[in-house]
Amino acid sequence: MTETANIKQKSKISAIWIIPVIALLVGVWMLYQYQTNLGPTIYITMPQAEGIVAGKTEIKVRSVKIGQIDHVRLSDTQDSVIARAQIDKNYDNLLTEDAKIWVVKPRIDETGISGMSTLLSGVYLEFSPGESKKKKEKFELQDEPALIGKDVKGGRFKLLSYNAEVLEVSTGIFFKNYKIGQIETATFDWKNQAMKYGIFIKAPYENLITLNSIFWVNSGIEIDLSADGININTGSLSKLLKGGISV
Question: What parts of the sequence cross the membrane (predicted)?
Answer without folding.
Answer: 12-32
